[in-house]
Please model this.
Amino acid sequence: YQKRQKGAKKVSKDVLDAKVKEGRKFLDAEKWDRAEKTFIEVISADPKHVRAYEYLGKMYLLKKDYDAAKETLTYLKKLAPDDASVTAALGEVEAKLGHQQVALKHLAEAVKLNEKNPKYLDLLIGASIDAGDKKQARASLKQLKKVNPDNQKIAEFEKRLKA
Model:
């Protein structure tokens, strides 16, 4: 990551937030190079800009550059230890890298930080099943049924649990 040069002018939070929004548009359009460049510009101006790091990490995850995603999100976790979104994204990366136990730890923490988020519960259930942790999977599935009883993945998860 680039460091801000001495004497560089401080950029306002509003300008940086607008840049992050611009980067998200590139991300949504899968213009990876432009998105990465935009997020790194923000990080260069503000080395602790949580959302710029988060979107950069998620971009690497989408690009399947799991090592870069892990590095980015691990650093971000130090900046924002109680951010459920960051924690869940780190769990996703660890799962993709085949580190199921580490993924479970992060995903369980994300659910603890935000108990009513169906996406985090989905991720935790899937990782629990993949890791063979039926107890965690059942408990998380029960929680998902309370939070989002119409979730279309419930039947699929039940079927996977039985298998």
The chain has nine helices and no strands.
